[in-house]
Amino acid sequence: MELQETKTGEYTLYIPSMDETYHSRNGAISESRHVFLQEGLDRTIGNIRVLEVGFGTGLNAILAAQYATQHQRKIHFHTFEPFQVPFDLISQIGYGQILEDQQLFEQLHAAEWETPVSISEYFIIHKTTQKLEYVSLTNEHYDCIFFDAFAPKKQPELWETGIFSKLYAATRPNGVLTTYSAAGQLKRNLKAAGYSTEHPPGANGKREMTVAMR
Ligand SMILES: C[S@@+](CC[C@H](N)C(=O)[O-])C[C@H]1O[C@@H](n2cnc3c(N)ncnc32)[C@H](O)[C@@H]1O
After folding, report:
1. Could you tell me if residue 13 is inside a domain?
2. Tell me, what DSSP letter sits at residue 34?
């Protein structure tokens, strides 16, 4: 795993053996804001529960924590990550400085695993090392799912109908699942799981992404 600069100047992580990055090479922060805040959190109201697939660098988590404070909405953020990013890369990635809240970024990474931790008046994070495919989820529990797995071609087992059926059962009525991908098989698998889908324009000029609604 190594740092890689995106077109907008901030870093993402790159895994050479998979030839895969953690975020869009055209801009990590702009992608996270677009896909998960604008097309995810903005479609929800009130206090909400989020499920994230892949805590990774914690970029989505810090953006969601800042969003919660800015909008004065309480967010319970349940995030799955079986492969933790080494601390030396987290300390170099710079998201805390760019987003002008280094303390928040450090708090999110320092938070104990496997238990809910209160970060602020508006944000609780619950990090778990469990793999999504093996976990059992509470029915009709989450208002917004950040589906931020590696690309379907790189990690196809996480994009199968069985996974989306499990997530559909865990989504509250009117809840949404949002993801950067708009692959044809993804669209079919989401529909087979019961979701209806929309495909707004993606981040950084990408033609489309996916929002799935229960
Ligand atoms: C595209 S990256 C996520 C980026 C992350 N959301 C961020 O803001 O940096 C995909 C993440 O999914 C994690 N992952 C891989 N296999 C997983 C699994 N079986 N269950 C849950 N997460 C998994 C990876 O370790 C990686 O951190």
Report:
1. no
2. I
Asked if residues 40 and 143 have their Cβ atoms less than 8 Å apart, the reply is: no
Neighbours of 198 (CB within 10 A): 14
205 within domain boundaries: yes
Please give the structure tokens belonging to residue 114.
């496997």
Residues with CB under 6 A from ligand 1: 22, 53-54, 56-57, 59-60, 80-83, 131-133, 148-150, 158
SS3 48: strand
* Number of domains present in the structure of the chain: 1
Ligand 1, atom 22: nearest CA belongs to which residue?
A: 54
Average pLDDT over residues 89-105: 97
Q: Is residue 170 part of a domain?
A: yes
Q: How much distance in Å is there from the Cα of 149 to the middle of ligand 1?
A: 5
Mean pLDDT of the region 25-45: 97
Residue with tokens 């104990």: 112
Residue at 11 is within a domain:
no
Q: What is the pTM of this model?
A: 0.98
Range(s) of the domain holding residue 72: 25-213
CA 80 and chain centroid, separation: 9
DSSP helix/strand/coil, 159: helix
Does residue 189 sit in helix, strand or coil? helix
CATH of the domain at 164: 3.40.50.150
